[in-house]
Write a sequence for this structure.
C-alpha cells in the first residue's frame, strides 16, 4: 500500500517566498500569483502508515510542520502542482525510516510546489518554472500532479 | 609601472568565505575588494571576480540557483574576465550556465554527494591533480593538498557526450587523486561521487573555473594538516597565483594592443 504525506510549514516558508520573488523577476512569469511548497513523501508498506509517519520527526517536526494525507484542492482553478524529485535518492530515506521502526519497503521524497496563476495557463507556467528554476534536469525529474477535487 | 590585478570578491546573502578568499587573493599579490551582490558599482574596474563559498540564499531551492539568477551574475558574465567559483561559487557558475558554458543553458549539476559514510554535508582533506590548463592551473603540475566542505559537490550531466567533449576541449581542470597523484574514482579519494572524480571544470575559453575544493583554505602551510605551522605559502596558493598571472598577461596584451 502506498501512503503519501504532504508536509507544509506552519511558519512562513522563506524558500517559497524566495522562489516566488525570483520567478516574478524573470521574464514570462508576470501571470504568477502565488507559490507554496510541501515536502513530499511516498511510502510503500503493508498498510497505511500515515499516522506513524506523521509522528516521525525526521519527516514532520510537530513544532513547525503539519502533515496532510492529500494535496488540498485550495479552491484555486488556476493552481498547478509540480513534484520535483532527486533521481536515485530513495534508498537512504528507506533505510533511515526502517531504522526508526517504520515498516516501509520503498520510500520516495520530493518537493511539491503549488503555483497559482493570476492569468494564463497554470500548468504551462508550472512547466516553465520547473525548466527555468525549480528543477535541474541533470539530477532531478518533475511531474505535474492533480489536486484533490 | 606594473599593474597589480584587482579582483572583486562577490558577497551574496549567506556567503561566508569572502574574507578568507580576500586574504588568500591578497597573499598572492592581488588587490581584492569585497563587493556586495546588490552593489551597482561599475565592474569594468576589475580584472577578475571570485565567487566564494558559503550558502548563498541559504541554498533555497538548490545550492547556487538563486544567486545564479541575480543581476550581478549577468554583469560578471558580460565582462568576459577571469572568474573563479569555489564551492558555492562553483554551484553558482554551473547553475548560471557559465560552466561548462557551451550553450548558455544549464548543462550540468552539482548534485548531492554520494558518499557511503555520511549523507549530506561532508568535509575532509583531499588531494587534487591538475589535469587541464586554464587561467587557474597548468596540466602536469604537482598534486595539491586541499580541503572540501560541501553537501552538493557531485558534477553530473545528462547531456550525452558532454564529459567526453569537456576532456577533448581541455575543460576538465582538476580531478581528485591520491597523495601520489593516482586518480581513483571511488570513495574516499573521490569524496562526493563526482563523475570521473572531477573536482574542477572550466569554460571553453579557460577564463572561468568552477571548483569544489577550497584553495583559500590551503593558502598557508599553517592551514594544512601535515604542514609546518608557518606562514609560508600553502598548496592552494597556486590557484590564485595562476589567476594573478593570467590577469597580468591580459593587462599586458591590452596595453600592447592599445599602443599599436
Amino acid at each position: 500500500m502506498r501512503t503519501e504525506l504532504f508536509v507544509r510549514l506552519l511558519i512562513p516558508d522563506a524558500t517559497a517566498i524566495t522562489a516566488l520573488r525570483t520567478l516574478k523577476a524573470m521574464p514570462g512569469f508576470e501571470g504568477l500569483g502565488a507559490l507554496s511548497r510541501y515536502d513530499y513523501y511516498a511510502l510503500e508498506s503493508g498498510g497505511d502508515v500515515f499516522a506513524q509517519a506523521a509522528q516521525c520527526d525526521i519527516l514532520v517536526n510537530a513544532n513547525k510542520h503539519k502533515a496532510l494525507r492529500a494535496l488540498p484542492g485550495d479552491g484555486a482553478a488556476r493552481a498547478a502542482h509540480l513534484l520535483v524529485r532527486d533521481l536515485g535518492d530513495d534508498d537512504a530515506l528507506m533505510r533511515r525510516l526502517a531504522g526508526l521502526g517504520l515498516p516501509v519497503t520503498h520510500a520516495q521524497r520530493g518537493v511539491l510546489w503549488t503555483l497559482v496563476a493570476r492569468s494564463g495557463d497554470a500548468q504551462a507556467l508550472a512547466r516553465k518554472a520547473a525548466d527555468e528554476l525549480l528543477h535541474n534536469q541533470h539530477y532531478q525529474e518533475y511531474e505535474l500532479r492533480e489536486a484533490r477535487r | 609601472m606594473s599593474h597589480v590585478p584587482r579582483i572583486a570578491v562577490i558577497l551574496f546573502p549567506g556567503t561566508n568565505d569572502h574574507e578568507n578568499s580576500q586574504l588568500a587573493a591578497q597573499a598572492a599579490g592581488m588587490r581584492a575588494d569585497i563587493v556586495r551582490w546588490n552593489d551597482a558599482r561599475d565592474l569594468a574596474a576589475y580584472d577578475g571576480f571570485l565567487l566564494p563559498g558559503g550558502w548563498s540564499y541559504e541554498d533555497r531551492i538548490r545550492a547556487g540557483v538563486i544567486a545564479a539568477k541575480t543581476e550581478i551574475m549577468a554583469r560578471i558574465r558580460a565582462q568576459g574576465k577571469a572568474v573563479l567559483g569555489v564551492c558555492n561559487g562553483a554551484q553558482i557558475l554551473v547553475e548560471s550556465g557559465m560552466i561548462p558554458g557551451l550553450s548558455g543553458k544549464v548543462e550540468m549539476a552539482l548534485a548531492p554527494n554520494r558518499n557511503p559514510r555520511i549523507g549530506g554535508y561532508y568535509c575532509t582533506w583531499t588531494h587534487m591533480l591538475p589535469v587541464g590548463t586554464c587561467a587557474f592551473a597548468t596540466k602536469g603540475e604537482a598534486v595539491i593538498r586541499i580541503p572540501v566542505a560541501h553537501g552538493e559537490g557531485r558534477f553530473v550531466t545528462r547531456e550525452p557526450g558532454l564529459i567526453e567533449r569537456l576532456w577533448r576541449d581541455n575543460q576538465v581542470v582538476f580531478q581528485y587523486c591520491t597523495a601520489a597523484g593516482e586518480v581513483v574514482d571511488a570513495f574516499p579519494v573521490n569524496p562526493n561521487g563526482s563523475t570521473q572524480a572531477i573536482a574542477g571544470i572550466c569554460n571553453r575559453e579557460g577564463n572561468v573555473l568552477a571548483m569544489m575544493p577550497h584553495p583559500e583554505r590551503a593558502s598557508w602551510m599553517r592551514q594544512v594538516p601535515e604542514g609546518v605551522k608557518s606562514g609560508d605559502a600553502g598548496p592552494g596558493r597556486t590557484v590564485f597565483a595562476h589567476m594573478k598571472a593570467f590577469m597580468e598577461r591580459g593587462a599586458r596584451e591590452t596595453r600592447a594592443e592599445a599602443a599599436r
About this structure: Chain A has one domain: 2-145. The interface with chain B takes residues 14-15, 18-19, 22, 25-26, 86, 89, 92, 133-134, 136-140 of chain A (CB under 8 Å). Residues 2-145 of chain A form one domain.
